[in-house]
Amino acid sequence: MRCLHYVDAVVEEAGGVVRAVLDLTAALAQQGIGGRGIEVTLLTGDAQDVPKSWLADESGTPRVEVISRSLTPWLSLGTADREAVSAAVAAADVVHLHTPWDPCNVAIAAEARRTGTPYMVSVHGMLDDWSMTQRGLKKRVYLSVAGRRMLEGAARIHFTAEGERQQAMKLAPRGSAVVLPLVMDLSPYRTLPGPQIARDTFADLQRDGAKLLFLSRVHPKKGVELLIEAVAAMRKRGDAVTALIAGPGDAAYVESLKQLATKLGVTDDVCFLGMVRGEAKLSLYQACDLFVLPTSQENFGIVLTEAMACATPIVTTRGVDIWQELQDRDAVIVDATPPALVEAIDQLLAEGDKLKTRGERSRTAVLDWLDPQTVVSQYVDLYRQCCRA
Fold first, then answer.
1. pLDDT (tens digit, 9 = 90+) per residue, 199-211?
2. What is the pLDDT of residue 36?
3. Are 38 and 380 a contacting pair, CB within 8 Å?
């Protein structure tokens, strides 16, 4: 089976969608080596963070094609892109599109319908209720003009959680829904590097007291302000606590967070680390007592499952589509308010030695739940269903 994936740009700083696409396509390509007969092509407009081995067309990796993403005002592809996309779609048995808002997806879906090639769309939380409040009028116009046709014409609309499906399907009521978790590359988490790499790299980990980690794209929806306010409340009563904020973000927004920390008197207790990758990232999870993501909206929240895979207990909100699945695996789910965060952090830190046991329980549970071989096999079966639809 030949599977074509499209995502607008493979730039990891853009967020979790890119990580999800890389992990899924890599796992599918490995299935091909294992005799499942899967050939994977990744079509994109920007290959910045595509692994070099893929670009070298090494065995067991997806084939990569780059287009310019040129569109006419009528959401039709420019001549060069139209020829490339037509050839890629014609060569595929099934097409997998990622996100609902990329207008190139509308054009690629139209080409798939024209050729009778089944396609599916992963919406990655972008039709959640909260997401639809952001530039909502523009999104609803887009859906009415072209987006709904793309979604409802898909063999399947893919959601990562039942909670996501319930929110989104009212926007494409005639669509055919399926719920599957993301494929997560768990190989780096099988043997963890330990906390010392992070302690040697980040001096703020030498401070006394609890270490609270936020690691994600630093964006207004993620609730960093709430974490800073929680730290201020804890420091006001005399607790030693440090929040480490890791991840890329708009410079002006990051500066506003630093100003908030200054205003609340916790400048020295809120540390901005920037983008952290590789072993240093895994070590950073291990070096912190808790992972805290007080987000307004998150789809699968890969950073949450990463933290759990590193045996770091997590605190997050019902803004995460998989909050129920996380809670079932020892995550603590709270309201998105500073007092609720403080209460949850207090309760977890009070567990003492049992906190480590909680983290190990979460690690075991997430490694079982997201076992790549099991999950990727479900995707292969789904593609076959799409071909029969």
1. 999 999 999 999 9
2. 59
3. yes
Q: Which residue has the tokens 């006394």?
A: 208
**Which pLDDT tens digit goes with each residue over 361-375?**
999 999 999 999 899
Q: How many CA atoms lie within 13 A of 237 on its CB side?
A: 7
Return d(Cα 281, Cα 303) in angstroms, integer: 10
Which 3 state secondary structure label does DSSP give 329?
coil
Q: What is the DSSP string of 219-261?
A: -GGG-HHHHHHHHHHHHHTT--EEEEEES-B-HHHHHHHHHHH
Alpha-carbon distance of 248 to 47, in angstroms, equals 19
Q: Are 117 and 99 within 8 A, CB to CB?
A: no
Whether residue 296 has pLDDT greater than 70: yes
Mean pLDDT of 331-339: 97
Going by their DSSP bridges, the two strands 332-334 and 314-317 should be labelled as parallel
Write out the DSSP string of 8-26: S---GGG-HHHHHHHHHHH
347: left (phi > 0), else alpha (psi -120 to 50), else beta? alpha
Give the Cα separation of 119 and 39 in Å (integer): 16
Phi and psi torsions of 73, nearest 5°: -60, -15
Q: Is the pLDDT of residue 311 over 70?
A: yes
Q: Report the SS3 class of residue 339.
A: helix
C-alpha 321/C-alpha 159 separation (Å) is 10
How many C-beta neighbours within 10 Å does residue 350 have? Answer: 9
**Cβ 323 vs Cβ 163: under 8 Å:** yes
Q: Is the pLDDT of residue 74 over 90?
A: no
Q: How far is CA 298 from the centre of its chain?
A: 8
Buried b (16+ CB within 10 A) or exposed e, 126-155: bbbeebbeeeeeebeebbeebbbbbbebbb
The H or E element that residue 179 is part of is: strand 177-179
Q: Is the dihedral of CA 219, 223, 225, 231 positive or negative?
A: negative
Output the pTM of the full model: 0.88
**pLDDT tens column, 147-194:** 999 999 999 999 999 999 999 999 999 999 999 999 998 999 999 999
Say what the pLDDT of residue 195 is: 98
In terms of residues, how long is the chain? 389
Q: Is the dihedral of CA 367, 368, 373, 378 positive or negative?
A: negative
